[in-house]
Amino acid sequence: MGLEDDGLAGITGDRLPDERRIEGDLSESIRPGGALWALASAGPQLRESAALAADAGLTALAEEGRPRAVVVAGVGTAARTGDILATVAGPRCPVPILGHRSAGVPGWVGAADVVIAVSASGRSPEALAAAEAAARRGARLVAIGAPDSELQALAERARASFVAVPRRAPARLSLWALTVPVLMAARELGLVNLVEADIAETARRLDEDAERCRPDADAYVNPAKELAMNLAGSIPVVWGSSPLAGVAARRFGDMLAANSRYPVVSGELGEVGRGRVGLLDGVFGSLAEGQTDIFADPEDDDQLTRLRIVLMRDDGLDGDDSGPKPDVRRADAVADLAARRGVRCDVLPAEGGCSLERLASLIAVPDFASVYLALAHGLDPMRVPAVSEMKDAMLGSE
Ligand SMILES: O=P(O)(O)OC[C@H]1O[C@@H](O)[C@@H](O)[C@@H](O)[C@@H]1O
């Protein structure tokens, strides 16, 4: 597909956000298959996927004992599931967990290792090549993706476990359906401590957040609409205060880029503090705040673009000694630095009794916010021409 004559590749949308667009008729996004519908299904996705994984014969994985390493192979959202596994397994995990985002597997992978190949469509060349390479090298293989896909055929040929995850929405809106089988495979290997109650509580939290973020709840009571409008027109800077919150921050970056088409800076505070926090002193930070014309019309097109910090704050679980204590001072310090420069900051605290639920508490509302922000600009969050054109371009070159 080439660029259309209007030079915008068929993109419609408005540079200026308008809150009225998210308070009006959202039937297109709520209908089955729509973006808000897909996000509202996060809890059911998680439960369904847990049941599918339980029936997929993953117990066979454990027969050969603990692996030397686990490689989670895939791209985009599929790759995020590897980051989630690493954070849920935690810093004391005895086995390295590596996300692999390019075709094939690293050169050292062999019979002592486990490869988890993930692809929502079941046809990303990266995941397929990883599954093939894993089988060739005699590594234990688990494949996760769409039923009746190339990935399933490959897993069957390799006599590997396959978890068939129904494809009801684009990959990025199927995060929970893809993540749970990855976690359950790692549980079989003794690498994560995830009990049924953790899965049930996480699903319940996703249900509750979907209810709070529902389209007919207006911005006063809807945290996702509020967050979307806070970010509207800004350059969002999303920082997580712990490795877990860092994964949620990067996920928000993925969603803001694909759904809302906003440029985002995201990362983990431990690293950010060594360089990126310098953004606060720059053109879009304190210089923009200090040079605001207080008499200018706030609706004015020429208003300066500003940073807006989203601080994902994870203070850890009380009594959890499974890793280093989260450094809460860092979160306080960055909030303070921002406040002193007039840079606005939204703080999202992690809640919940296990790491999966805490992660969900940092992902659910921002996921919805990314869709509301797209809709406020009149953008279709489901249709991302640049992504489709990239895929087409790459298919043409292979
Ligand atoms: O999970 P699969 O189907 O392999 O797709 C992997 C990735 O492909 C990209 O082009 C995007 O569409 C992402 O949203 C998606 O996560």
The gist of it:
44% of the residues lie in helices and 12% in strands.
CATH architecture assignment of the largest domain: 3-Layer(aba) Sandwich
Major beta sheet summary: 5 strands, parallel
Order of helices and strands: HHHHEHEEHEHEHHHEHEHHEHEHH
| CATH fold-level assignment of the largest domain | Rossmann fold
Spans of 5+ residues with little confidence (pLDDT < 50)? 1-7
Give the overall shape, derived from the CA principal axes.
globular
Q: Any idea how many domains?
A: 2
Helix-strand makeup class: alpha/beta
Q: Could you characterize the architecture of this molecule?
A:
The chain is of the alpha/beta class and 398 residues long. It folds into 2 domains: 40-194, Glucose-6-phosphate isomerase like protein, domain 1 (Rossmann fold, 3-Layer(aba) Sandwich), CATH 3.40.50.10490; 209-376, Glucose-6-phosphate isomerase like protein, domain 1 (Rossmann fold, 3-Layer(aba) Sandwich), CATH 3.40.50. The protein has helices at 20-23, 27-30, 35-40, 42-54, 77-89, 125-137, 150-157, 175-188, 196-212, 223-231, 243-260, 269-272, 286-290, 328-340, 355-376, 385-397; strands at residues 70-73, 97-100, 114-119, 140-145, 161-164, 235-240, 265-268, 307-313, 345-349. The strands form 2 sheets. A 5-stranded parallel beta sheet has the order 2-1-3-4-5, with helices on both faces. A 4-stranded parallel beta sheet has the order 7-6-8-9, sandwiched between helices. Strand 1 (70-73), helix 5 and strand 2 (97-100) form a beta-alpha-beta unit. Helix 5 (77-89) packs across helix 8 (175-188), helix 6 (125-137) packs parallel to helix 7 and helix 9 (196-212) packs parallel to helix 15 (355-376). It is globular. The chain binds 6-O-phosphono-beta-D-mannopyranose. 6-O-phosphono-beta-D-mannopyranose binds next to helix 5 and helix 16.
